Write the structure tokens for this entry.
Amino acid sequence: MKEDRTYIGLMDVLAANFDVMYGSGIRGHEMTLFEMHLPKPPARVLDVGCGTGRLLPWLSHMGYSVVGLEPSMEMDKMCKRRIKDDSLESVYSEKTEFLNSQLESESFDAVLMLGNLLGSIESRGITQNFLREAKRLLVPDGVFLVDASNIMYCGSILKCYQSMARHHMRFGDTVETVAVKGRDYRFFNHFFNVWDLSRRLSGMGFEVRGVYGADSIYKNGKLVCGARKYFMNPFFIAAFNSPY
Ligand SMILES: C[S@@+](CC[C@H](N)C(=O)[O-])C[C@H]1O[C@@H](n2cnc3c(N)ncnc32)[C@H](O)[C@@H]1O
């Protein structure tokens, strides 16, 4: 079989160590945002690109009914093992790509797209299809939570200029080569700015509920979501209400 050196191929080779590299559970800022924006349990939550399923135990323990979608075979295996080992009731995962899922329209109260999935999509048209699909699956007034790399973060601006010079791409795009076990994997990333992402979603009728700099939401026990925070943060998370 031909080796897949694309993003999904990279996820396959990273799967076994993914939790060690990126953390195996929900992060503090995610918990805060979930508590702020997710509809109350037992709401139905879709975790798109659920990876190894690091968000599933928390969601399950809170009483949500959860579906996780994951196209990488190795990630999906890790996720299914977690569901079994942790006896996660009310959680189901499927090895599939988001746009092929065959899920019914308006079958979720919330859709999560976390871990920079949106930025890894190379085509603008497919990004739009992802947003349209999230909208289709959400009930009226459902909640869409998405995170993205932040172009305003100075390191990322530099990367974008370097990539443009090398690959003749639009501003915001980067292409990197990541070496794993001696093999190179191509890794695309689009860095968003807050207005770009908000405009794309509001163009589809979503309403912006909030944009936050990840990792800087809590300070001294208080919620911090000022503009400076999301300008300077490498990632931001945005919450949207679906149209109704
Ligand atoms: C960086 S990981 C984040 C995983 C998880 N959401 C987290 O936050 O830990 C992005 C995930 O999206 C998955 N993914 C990539 N393309 C996808 C697609 N078309 N549909 C659904 N998931 C996809 C990848 O396989 C990968 O597991």
